[in-house]
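Hi R.,

Here's the chain you asked about this morning:
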Amino acid sequence: MAPIDDIRDDRMKKLNALKAQGINPYPAVSWKKQEIAEVLAHFDAWEKEKKEVSIAGRLLSKREHGAIIFCDIYGNGSKIQLLLKSDVLGEKAFALFSECFDIGDFIDVEGSLFITKRGEKTAEVHKIQMLAKSLAPLPEKWHGLQDEEEKLRKRYLDILFSEDVRRTVERRAKFWGAVRSFMLGKGFLEVETPILENTTGGADARPFITHHNALDIEVFLRISVGELWQKRLMVAGFEKVFEIGRVFRNEGMSAEHLQDYTAMEFYWAYADYNDGMKLAKELFRFVAQEAFGTQQFTIGSFSVDLAKEWEVYDYRDTIKQKTGVDVLDTNIKAIEQKLKELGVEYDKKGFNITRGIDNLWKYCRKQIAGPGFLVNVPVVMEPLAKRDSKNREMAQRFQVLIAGSELGKGYSELNDPIDQAERLSDQQKLREAGDEEAQMYDKDFVEALEYGMPPTCGFGLSERVFAFFSNKPARECQIFPLLRPKEIPMKKIATKKAVKTVKKTTKKKK
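And the predicted structure, written out as C-alpha cells:
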C-alpha cells in the first residue's frame, strides 16, 4: 500500500478535478429515498415491479472490467453490490467515476434491481453523485486496525469494519432504552439534576474540579446521578423519580472502572430496601431480556443465570467466613495485617478502618458468582443509609452481586436530619484527615431533610452492568472512551491553585 501522504495527495488532485468540472464534492442534498436494508428486504418484489431505487452510502470496493465496474456500497449496517455500465451511465459520467471516485467516498445512486448470474443482488446504476470525497484511505478490508489503542482512538473506523463493535453500540442503546422503559412503566418520573455542584454527594469518590467563570467559584462535576437532589424532590412531594445521566469520578482506570460514564438512580417514597431489592431484580431481568435476549450469561470465569433464585449474602458473615476477620470487632492494625497476609494491594493515602474493611470485602466478593444481594453492611460504611431497626450498627443497604463484582447499590435512605448531620460531619473529618473519597458535609441537604422526607428507597446502577453482560472491558463498551492525547496535551482546567482553594473551602464546611 502506498504511503498515506501520497494517497492523500492523489485524492486531493481528484478533489480538485471534480471542482474544475463544476462538481461540488460535498453537496448538502442527497437523492436518498430508501435504506439499503429496505431495498434488500423488498428486493424480489421491487425487482419484479422494475422499481427505481435511490440509495446512498460509502463506497467499500471497486472492481473495474473495461466498460463495466462492480462495486459495493455500505450504509447503516447493510451492503449491496452496484453495477456501472459505460453505455447506461454515459461515457463522461462513467469516466468520472473511474478516475475520481475512491473507496471510502460517500455516493448517491439511482438505478434498477437485478440478480447476477452468480446470484448476487445488485443495483444497476443509472445516475450517480458524489456526496463526500474522502481524503484519507480506509484500512485494508482484511487487516484493518490491529493496534487495540488505535482501535479506540479511531473508533469510527473500528465501528465501520467490526460488526461486533457496531452491535455493541446498538445494544448499548437498547440497554438504556430498556432501563428507561422499565422505570416509566413502573410510574417513575424522569428528572434532570445538576452536573455542576458546590458540594459533591451521594458516593465515596474523588471529584473533578473546574472553575465557573461567571460566578467566579470552583465547582465539582457530580459523582452520583443527583442523589441528594433527587432526595430533595422527595421532600418536595414527588414519590417516584429517576435519572439517567453522566457521572464523573477522578479515579483510577481498570477493566471495570472509568472516569466518566452513564448511570441511573431512582428514588421511591414509602418504600424500603426490601422493596428495592424486589424492584432491582425485576429491572435486571427485564433489561437483560430486552437488550441481550437472554437471562444466562458467561462473564469471565463465571456462569450467571438471572432467572434463578437470587442469593442473599451477609456482609459480616461473608468476610468472617473468607478472612477470619469480624468487621464489628477489629482494628486498623489487624486489618492491615490481614490485607498483607492475603496479598491485597491498597492505597495507603488516607487509609482508615472504613477503607480497610472495604478492601477486605473486595477480596471476598471476587469469589462470589451470584446473582444475589449483599446486606447488613456496617453503618460506618454507608453515611446516607438508614440504620437497621434490629441492629443499629448495621445499615439497611443492599448491593447487587454478579460475577464477583457489585453491579448496583441501594438502601433505605436516611431521613433523620440529626443522624445525617452527624454522619456527614464524621465523613468531613475523614476527608480532612486525607481521605479524598470521603463525602463532604452538605449543609443545604441537611436543611432540606429538616423539612421532612418520607421513608424512601434509592437504587443506582451504571454502564458497568452493560459491560459485564457483554463480557467486555468497560472501556470497550463506551462508544468513544477517553484517551490520552497522542501529541499535544490538553490544557489542565483545574490548576494546583484551584485544587488548594477547593480543599481549603471544603474544610470550612461543617
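The chain is about 35% helix and 25% strand.

Let me know if you need anything else.
M.
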